[in-house]
Write a structure and sequence with these properties.
This protein is mainly alpha-helical and about 450 residues long. It contains 20 helices and six strands. Helices cover about 60% and strands about 5% of the residues. Bound molecules: arginine (ARG). Arginine binds near residues 83, 319 and 322.
């Protein structure tokens, strides 16, 4: 039976019930709904609605219900209740009779669902923080294992300048650290308690909302009832933080898919995170990485979904907002599993150092060094850039790297070039020069890694 039957003389149509019920989605809020109800029972006891005895009876029944349902979602869904709040109230009445009917005094499903959802966001957000931290640790371990493997760095997917593999790993550490701080920030804003704001205008009972908020582990109560029941910023923020983080995961996946390609052959992926082809026996496909890249799309979709749902909604609660949960749950599930999967991929990843080194030596990745060499000999950089461009064209025509051109051949482009040029064209020299903070010289990368390992 619905919670609101008194005003109605006809039953809902079967189609409306199917359309309107949210239990198949919001059953996941069972723990939060019960925990919130336990706190509410105490709050209404303090304003004289329930006796201490009634309150403890309700607490006991609610705890019992939690034990019966927490690992049994099928039991919840099979009840056919309208939503998780109706399910909990109906189950409570079934357990304790008329006393159960007192629990909703002064409360609305509007402040109740807002509370449940914020509690869920806080719990899930904290789990995500743990997974982001684990992924960060996996990247730091990989950086340590493969720190000095030399590989080409790319711009426009053209070999640009050599870098070390540890530098690539630490680039993603920076990104996931920003994701962690963004999520922490969002969780701070989500840490206000909606309970006790009623349907929209505030509850009619003079309860201590500060105490109520504390009892549920919130930092403070919300301050405006109209805003409280119509606010889903925390859902949007989590979807947005997840989208940015998935963008990082997807870029990392894409880099690794490319590194793993037959053409590059820079890395080997563990058998555990790859799959074969049903037809082509030689294939070992980077499915885990492709799925990380692929799932990014559905996360962005949910962000667009909730932003669009909330756009232009008048104050205060509207049923449109029931659409908030399906996308959020999917976002947090997708984000979690992608973080875990990415960490597993990194754990079993090895670098083929001969391949990365020989690729770094090709593609004229040391051209900038030759230009800097000419600058050191007194040539203005723009002119040096032009001279080296000509030398590269000629080397390409001869199908040889710059360092294999003879001194005479090089001097044809500029007489200032001397025998010391070869020294500066080596990979070691290219790397060693990038010693300013944030560069890819080995000492820089080692000290960056040491900082990350400390915290
Ligand atoms: N199932 C609803 C939701 O998720 C709960 C709130 C219902 N409130 C209402 N006034 N109909 O949004």
């Amino acid at each position: 039976m619905a919670l609101w039957g008194g005003r109605f003389s006809q039953e809902s149509s079967a189609l409306f019930k199917l359309f309107n019920d949210s239990l198949p989605v919001d059953f996941r809020l069972i723990e939060q709904d019960i925990v919130g109800s336990i706190a509410w029972a105490s709050a209404i006891t303090q304003v004289g609605i329930l006796t201490e005895q009634e309150c403890s009876e309700l607490h006991q029944a609610l705890n019992e219900l939690l034990g019966e349902t927490i690992d049994n979602p099928q039991l919840i869904i099979a009840s056919g209740a309208e939503d998780i709040h109706s399910f909990v109230e109906q189950s409570l009445i079934a357990k304790v009779g008329d006393l159960g009917k007192k629990l909703h005094t002064g409360r609305s499903r509007n402040d109740q669902v807002a509370t449940d959802l914020k509690l869920w966001c806080k719990k899930e957000g904290n789990q995500l923080l743990g997974l982001l931290t684990k992924l960060r640790a996996a990247l730091i371990d990989l950086a340590e294992r493969e720190l000095d493997a030399v590989m080409p760095g790319y711009t426009h997917l053209q070999r640009a300048q050599p870098v070390v593999f540890g530098h690539w790993c630490l680039a993603y550490v920076e990104m996931f650290e920003r994701d962690i701080s963004r999520l922490q920030d969002a969780l701070k804003r989500a840490d206000t308690c909606p309970l006790g704001t009623g349907a929209l205008a505030g509850t009619a009972y003079p309860m201590d909302r500060v105490k109520l908020a504390q009892s549920l582990g919130f930092a403070a109560p919300t301050l405006n009832s109209l805003d409280t029941v119509s606010d889903r910023d925390h859902v949007i923020e989590l979807c947005s933080d997840a989208s940015i983080s998935m963008m990082h995961l997807s870029r990392m996946a894409e880099d690794l898919i490319f590194f793993n390609s037959g053409e590059a052959g820079f890395i080997d992926l563990d058998d555990q995170v790859t799959s074969g082809s049903s037809l082509m026996p030689q294939k070992k496909n980077p499915d885990a990485l492709e799925l990380i890249r692929g799932k990014t799309g559905r996360v962005y979709g949910s962000l667009m979904g909730i932003l669009t749902t909330m756009k232009a909604l008048p104050l205060a609660y509207n049923k449109d907002m029931q659409e908030d949960k399906e996308g959020l749950f999917d976002v947090m599930d997708s984000w979690s599993i992608c973080l875990e999967m990415a960490a597993l991929v990194l754990t079993g990843l090895t670098v083929n150092r001969d391949k990365t080194l020989s690729a770094a030596k090709q593609g004229y990745a040391n051209s900038t060094e030759l230009a800097d060499y000419l600058v050191a000999k007194g040539m203005p950089f723009r002119e040096a850039h032009h001279v080296v461009g000509e030398a590269v064209v000629s080397a390409i025509a001869k199908q040889t790297p710059l360092e294999d051109l003879s001194l005479e051949e090089l001097q044809a482009f500029s007489p200032v070039i001397g025998a010391d040029v070869y020294e500066c064209l080596t990979i070691e020299s290219c790397l060693a020069k990038r010693e300013a903070l944030g560069g890819t010289s080995l000492p820089q990368v080692k000290s960056a890694l040491a900082v990350k390992q400390q915290g």
